[in-house]
Specification:
Elements lengths: L7 E5 L7 H16 L6 E5 L5 H8 L5 E4 L16 H6 L4 E4 L2 H6 L4 H13 L3 E6 L3 H5 L3 H12 L9 E5 L13 H18 L2 H6 L2 E4 L4 H8 L6 E4 L6 H9 L4
Parallel strand pairs: 1-2, 1-8, 2-3, 3-4, 4-5, 5-6, 6-7, 7-8
Bound molecules: 2-phosphoglycolic acid.
Length: 255
C-alpha cells in the first residue's frame, strides 16, 4: 500500500436491508467513525436505493461515505425502474458501484454500457467504482489477465483520473463463495490493472488510483489481502452486513 493512497473499505449491501437497518448498521458505523479516534481508512456504504434517503440524512454531517449500487447512463427520462447519477447525488452519494458482475450477468451489462454509466457518474461529480473480474472458467483457462485488461480498457470513462474512478477487482468465482485467489494472484492482477491504467490515463494518475479487492473478504483474510502492495482497500459484500466484521476489515488496513 502506498501512503499516498488512503485505504477505502466499501460495503456493498446488495438487495439487503429494510428501514431498521438504518438504526442498526449505519448508526453503529456513524458513531464509530465520528466519535472515535481519527481513522487511517475511508469507509463507504452502498445500501439499496430505498435506504439512500434515510441513511443520507444520517451521513450528511458524518465521515461515513454513501454510495449507490448502480445508475443509468441517461440524466433522466423514460427509463422505468432506473435511478440516475443526479438522483444519487441529490441523496448525498459521493460514489456509485458500476459494472458489478451481478449486473453484468443478470442485466447483460457490457463494458460499453459500464463506460457510458461511468461517464454519467463523472458528470455529476460522483466517483465511479468500476468492477472487473474473470469468471471461474476464464480463471481455470488462465485467461484472467487478458479478460481484466480488456474490461479496464473498454469500461474506463473519458476523463478518468485518480479522483473520479476506483477499480474493484472481483473474481466472479470468489463472490459470495468463501473462495479467494492466492495473495500472489491478487497482487499480480492488481499490478496489471495499475499498469493498464498507466497506459490508458497516465502513470502518475494510475499510481494515485485506488484499487480495491472484492470477493469473500472477511476479517480472517483481510490482513493478508489489505497488506498487498497494490491493494488499497476492499469491496465487501456479505461481511459488510455485520458492523463488527466490516469494522474489523477496515481496521486491518495497514497504517
Ligand atoms: P462478497 O461480495 O464479499 O459477499 O463475496 C463482494 C461483492 O459482490 O462486492
Amino acid at each position: 500500500m502506498s501512503f499516498e493512497r488512503r485505504p477505502l473499505i466499501a460495503g456493498n449491501w446488495k438487495m439487503n436491508g429494510l428501514i431498521n437497518s438504518v438504526d442498526n448498521l449505519a448508526c453503529i458505523l456513524v458513531k464509530k467513525l465520528d466519535l472515535g479516534k481519527p481513522t487511517h481508512f475511508d469507509l463507504l456504504i452502498c445500501p439499496p436505493s430505498t435506504l439512500l434517503h434515510p441513511i443520507g440524512v444520517l451521513t450528511e454531517k458524518s465521515n461515513l461515505l454513501l454510495g449507490g449500487q448502480n445508475c443509468h447512463m441517461a440524466k433522466h427520462g423514460a427509463h422505468t425502474g432506473e435511478i440516475s447519477a443526479e438522483m444519487l447525488k441529490e441523496l448525498g452519494c459521493s460514489h456509485v458501484i458500476l459494472g458489478h458482475s451481478e449486473r453484468r450477468t443478470d442485466f447483460y451489462e457490457t463494458n460499453k454500457l459500464v463506460k457510458a454509466k461511468s461517464e454519467s457518474a463523472l458528470a455529476e461529480n460522483l466517483t465511479a467504482i468500476i468492477c472487473v473480474g474473470e469468471t471461474e472458467e476464464e480463471y481455470k483457462r488462465g485467461l484472467t489477465g487478458g479478460v481484466v485488461k480488456k474490461q479496464i480498457l473498454d469500461s474506463i470513462p473519458e476523463g478518468a483520473s485518480a479522483t473520479n474512478i476506483i477499480i474493484a477487482y472481483e473474481p466472479v468465482w470468489a463472490i459470495g463463495t468463501g473462495l479467494t485467489p492466492t495473495t500472489q494472484e491478487v497482487q499480480e492482477v492488481h499490478a496489471l490493472i495499475r499498469k493498464t491504467l498507466g497506459e490508458k490515463i497516465s502513470i502518475e494518475e494510475s499510481e494515485r488510483t485506488r484499487l480495491l479487492y472484492g470477493g469473500s473478504v472477511k476479517p480472517s483474510n483481510s490482513v493478508e489481502l489489505m497488506g498487498l502492495a497494490d491493494v488499497d482497500g476492499a469491496l465487501v459484500g456479505g461481511a459488510s452486513l455485520s458492523g463488527v466484521d466490516f469494522w474489523a476489515i477496515a481496521e486491518s488496513c495497514p497504517k
